[in-house]
Amino acid sequence: MATSLKNLSDYDPAKVPSAEDMRIAVVVSEWNEQITNALAQGAVDTLIRHGIKEENILLKYVPGSFELTAGGRMIADHCPDIDAVICLGCVIKGDTPHFDYVCQGVTQGITELNLQYDIPFIFGVLTTDNLQQSLDRAGGIHGNKGDEAAITAIKMVQFNMDLQ
Ligand SMILES: Nc1c(NC[C@H](O)[C@H](O)[C@H](O)CO)[nH]c(=O)[nH]c1=O
Ligand SMILES: CC(=O)[C@@H](O)COP(=O)(O)O
């Protein structure tokens, strides 16, 4: 379903577990920081809204979306108490095929982290044709991808906890 048909910030709160006992990292790309800072704010606000303690949010920044994979892995390797890693970025198409390689790289990278580690890595990366599409998905008419990523993280952490 296209995002235009489903607002990224719409969800049923009754279906979201409490994040009170969770410890979640948020890794944010500095590229397109106007967008990624809005994504990060949405994610943090949503996590807090669902009960996480502020001291249990680890907020870290990497240069670009391509580095989200390395940042996520480093957190998983050095912070064993982290229950999930939310990866937030914004890749906007330019004049060259570089967009394709960055998007492919971060997508494959985060996918592989999910296969290699026993915690969820959430793909909160906007891949858009232009700035307006990004603005629309970072708190604009289509909601905030950061909200969606936070809800996904909470649900996946609870999914994992229920199996322990
Ligand atoms: N053009 C965008 C980039 N490019 C930078 C890469 O992510 C990476 O940091 C660089 O290739 C060095 O490894 N990154 C974004 O997040 N968004 C873009 O639009
Ligand atoms: C996603 C990118 O790396 C891209 O924005 C860079 O722009 P360009 O392809 O014009 O170099």
Automatic annotation (TrEMBL):
It comes from Breznakibacter xylanolyticus. Pfam families: DMRL_synthase. InterPro entries: LS (IPR034964), LS/RS (IPR002180), LS/RS_sf (IPR036467). Its EC number is 2.5.1.78. 5-amino-6-(D-ribitylamino)uracil binds at residues 31, 65-67, 90-92, 123. HAMAP family: Lumazine_synth. It catalyses: (2S)-2-hydroxy-3-oxobutyl phosphate + 5-amino-6-(D-ribitylamino)uracil = 6,7-dimethyl-8-(1-D-ribityl)lumazine + phosphate + 2 H2O + H(+). GO terms for cellular component: cytosol; riboflavin synthase complex. Catalyzes the formation of 6,7-dimethyl-8-ribityllumazine by condensation of 5-amino-6-(D-ribitylamino)uracil with 3,4-dihydroxy-2-butanone 4-phosphate. This is the penultimate step in the biosynthesis of riboflavin. It comes from the Bacteria. The active site is at 98 (proton donor). GO terms for biological process: riboflavin biosynthetic process. Pathway: Cofactor biosynthesis; riboflavin biosynthesis; riboflavin from 2-hydroxy-3-oxobutyl phosphate and 5-amino-6-(D-ribitylamino)uracil: step 1/2. This is 6,7-dimethyl-8-ribityllumazine synthase. (2S)-2-hydroxy-3-oxobutyl phosphate binds at residues 95-96, 137. It is an enzyme of class 2 (transferase). Signal peptide: none annotated. The lineage of its organism: Bacteria, Pseudomonadati, Bacteroidota, Bacteroidia, Marinilabiliales. SUPFAM superfamilies: Lumazine synthase (SSF52121). One of its GO terms (molecular function) is 6,7-dimethyl-8-ribityllumazine synthase activity. Keywords: Riboflavin biosynthesis, Transferase. Belongs to the DMRL synthase family.
